[in-house]
Amino acid sequence: MITIPDAEHDTLRLGERPLIVCDVDEVVLEFITPFQAFLVEHGHELQPRSFRLTGNVIRLSDGSETAAEEVDRLLEAFFAEQDGWQTPVEAAADSLAELSGKADIVFLTAMPPRHRTIRRSLLSRHGFDYPMIATEAAKGPAVKALHGARDQPLVFIDDIFVNLHSVKAHVPETLLINLMANDTFRALAPHPGDGVDIASDWMHAVELISAHIGSTGA
Ligand SMILES: [Mg+2]
């Protein structure tokens, strides 16, 4: 059994009911749009040329590409100040509140655990009162550690295909949903591949999840 280090998660208590594991950035909190604003304030710009950050950030003063190490530094600064920048994705809070009536919800965010406290309070401030795991480890093993051998429907929502496929590899029975708030970068994203449902927005995600939970006998 793979365990999740205590420093990376809130108290986790799962009921005998379906489980929804949900990403945070671009799924319940806006990330791209506020990060673009943050970059401009610091003299840089994220240009939507391809589905990645590295290589697409330029220095506003001369148009030169911002070095990867500098992008990492800016990202770290953004996460440290996230409560002043990130806002909820449209309909995310109401949708999760509706789903929480029939399933447990756990946030799984790919973020250094040192930013856990600020993210925890930001989520709670916006009504996202569900336990959170913050880890930089692969998401598949984390979902497997969480779900174990439980015989309950499992759903995983994320904007990044690597994460969706990591979960697919470790817990193949999962309903995989690709959801991304930023329309510009969504349009640049590669197709998530077989076995992943693309939700156009949270209302669509609720339809897909409700159908899955209902059809698997919850
Ligand atoms: Mg994300």
Global Rg: 17 Å
Give the strand content: 5-15%
* Tally of individual domains: 2
Helical percentage: 25-40%
What is the end-to-end distance?
25 Å
CATH class of the largest domain reads Alpha Beta
- Overall pLDDT score: 92
The shape, in one word, is globular
Largest sheet: 6 strands, parallel
- pLDDT < 50 stretches: none
Quickly count the helices: 8
**What CATH architecture of the largest domain do you see?**
3-Layer(aba) Sandwich
Number of strands: 8
CATH level 3 topology of the largest domain: Rossmann fold
Strand order of the largest sheet: 5-4-1-6-7-8
SSE arrangement, N to C: EHEEHHEHEHEHEHEH
> CATH superfamily membership of the largest domain, which one?
HAD superfamily/HAD-like
Q: Name every ligand kind in the structure.
A: magnesium ion
Structural class: alpha/beta
Descriptive account of the structure:
The chain is of the alpha/beta class and 218 residues long. Helices cover 37% and strands 14% of the residues. Strands 5-4-1-6-7-8 form a six-stranded parallel sheet, with helices on both faces. Strands 2-3 form a two-stranded antiparallel ribbon. Helix 5 (139-147) packs across helix 6 (161-170). The longest helix is centred in the last third of the chain and has 14 residues, at 202-215. The model has no long low-confidence stretch (mean pLDDT 92). The structure holds magnesium ion. The site of magnesium ion (MG) has 7 residues, from loops.
